[in-house]
């Protein structure tokens, strides 16, 4: 004899499965899944990154990736939220790796700048220039900043970046080109 609680859980699972299958057929219905799970996913992310802006960006990326991957989602009796949390976990880990690599490059740039041939004064100037460059990369439009960070801080190929961002290689090359143009203009503005 099943309890009322167990039959309610079965009904909730059946309703969620039905909603997922509907959204797989009609992407316009994904909004219902988004509305149902947004707060839980955002809370999960914000507890781990502790920065509101970054948490909002990651949460948006989670739902973008979920929508993009929805046709491949297979129901296995586990709540849909678990799948979303897994995507969030991976996005947080990817961001942490990117940030760590960027900081390592910044430290390396400072130590490279203070070398035997250039002396301390040149080293400080070079470190200052690189610091400005990193700040300018952070101020680029989000997609351009991600491409530059992935390309130069993470040493990823155009193909790897295209795959990670769900874009064509041509689109990634265009983003990189525009980002480099923006950086040249902004570096020129900040230097004179």
Helix content: over 70%
Rg from Cα = 22 Å
Number of contiguous helices: 8
Number of E-type strands: 0
Distance between the termini: 80 Å
The biggest sheet amounts to: none
Structural class: mainly alpha
Shape: elongated
Q: Mean pLDDT, nearest integer? A: 81
* Proportion of residues in extended strands: under 5%
Order of helices and strands: HHHHHHHH
**Residue ranges: pLDDT <50 for 5 or more in a row?**
none
Concise synopsis of the structure shown:
By secondary structure, the protein is mostly helical. Helix content is about 80%, strand content about 0%.
Describe this structure in words.
This protein is mostly helical and 192 residues long. The chain is built from 8 helices and no strands. It has helices at residues 4-25, 30-49, 52-69, 80-113, 119-139, 142-153, 158-165, 169-191. Helix 7 (158-165) crosses helix 8 (169-191). It is elongated, with a radius of gyration of 22 Å. The model has no long low-confidence stretch (mean pLDDT 81).
């Amino acid at each position: 004899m099943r309890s009322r609680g167990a039959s309610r859980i079965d009904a909730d699972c059946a309703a969620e499965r039905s909603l997922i299958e509907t959204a797989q057929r009609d992407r316009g219905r994904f909004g219902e899944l988004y509305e149902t799970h947004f707060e839980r996913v955002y809370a999960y992310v914000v507890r781990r990154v502790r920065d509101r802006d970054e948490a909002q960006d990651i949460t948006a990326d989670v739902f973008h990736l979920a929508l993009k991957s929805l046709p491949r989602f297979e129901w296995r009796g586990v709540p849909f939220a678990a799948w979303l949390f897994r995507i969030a976990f991976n996005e947080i880990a990817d961001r942490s790796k990117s940030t760590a690599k960027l900081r390592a490059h910044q430290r390396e740039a400072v130590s490279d700048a203070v070398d035997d041939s250039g002396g301390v004064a040149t080293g400080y100037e070079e470190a200052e220039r690189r610091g400005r460059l990193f700040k300018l990369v952070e101020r680029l439009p989000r997609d351009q900043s991600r491409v530059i960070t992935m390309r130069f801080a993470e040493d990823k190929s155009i193909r790897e970046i295209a795959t990670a961002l769900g874009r064509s290689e041509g689109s990634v090359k265009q983003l990189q080109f525009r980002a480099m143009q923006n950086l040249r203009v902004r570096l020129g503005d900040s230097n004179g």
